[in-house]
C-alpha cells in the first residue's frame, strides 16, 4: 500500500528522479518522458470522466485510469529491478499484463457493434464529452510515442506497448459512441475551404 505523508522530498532538486529499484534518472530521460506522458493522458481521461458523469462509460474510464497507474509503475520499474529477469509481474513488481489490453479489445468490439461504418475521417468534436475523449486520445498517442522512444533505448514490457496502442483505439471508438447517442460525428470535408 502506498503511504505519502510528505509530498516534497527535495531529492529531485538536482534534476533527477527515483525509480522503483532505487536508481535515479534525469527528469528529461526517455523513461521519465514516457511516465510523464502517461500521467498527462490519465489527467485528460479524468476530464472526460467528469464530462460523462455517472455513466457506464465513465466507469470504464475510471478502470482505465487505474490501469494507467499500473502502467506508470511498470515504466518506473526497469527490467531487472528487484531481481526480476523478465516482464512478468510478481509480488514486488507491478506490470501491465496482456489481459488488460484484451479487456480494451473486447470493449472496443462491443461499442463498435452499434456504430455505422466510417465513410470519412472525423473531426474531434461533437458533444463536449466526446471532444474531451478526443483530447484524451491525442494525449494517449503522445504517451505511445514517448513509450516507443523509450523502447528503442531500453527494454520495455511488450504488454505495456500493446496496452497503450489499444487504448487510443478505444478512446476513438468511445468518442464515436458518445456522439452516436447525441450530437453525431463531425465529418472531415477534404479541401472544403480552398
The biggest sheet amounts to: 2 strands, antiparallel
Give the proportion of residues in helices: 55-70%
Strand coverage percent: 5-15%
What is the helix tally?
Answer: 5
Q: Compute the average pLDDT.
A: 91
Architecture blueprint of SSEs:
Blueprint: E1 16-18, E2 24-26, H1 30-52, H2 56-75, H3 98-112, E3 122-123, H4 128-153, H5 158-180, E4 186-187
Antiparallel strand pairs: 1-2, 3-4
Helix pairs in contact: 1-2, 1-4, 3-5, 4-5
Task: Describe the protein.
A hairpin with a 5-residue loop joins strand 1 and strand 2 (24-26). The protein has a single domain, classed as Cobalamin adenosyltransferase-like (Hypothetical Protein Ta1238, Chain: A). A two-stranded antiparallel ribbon has the order 1-2. It is mainly α. It has five helices and four strands, in the order ββαααβααβ. It has helices at 30-52, 56-75, 98-112, 128-153, 158-180; strands spanning 16-18, 24-26, 122-123, 186-187.
What features would you highlight for this structure?
single chain; 194 residues; mainly alpha; Hypothetical Protein Ta1238, Chain: A; two-stranded antiparallel ribbon; 5 helices; 4 strands; 55% helix; 5% strand
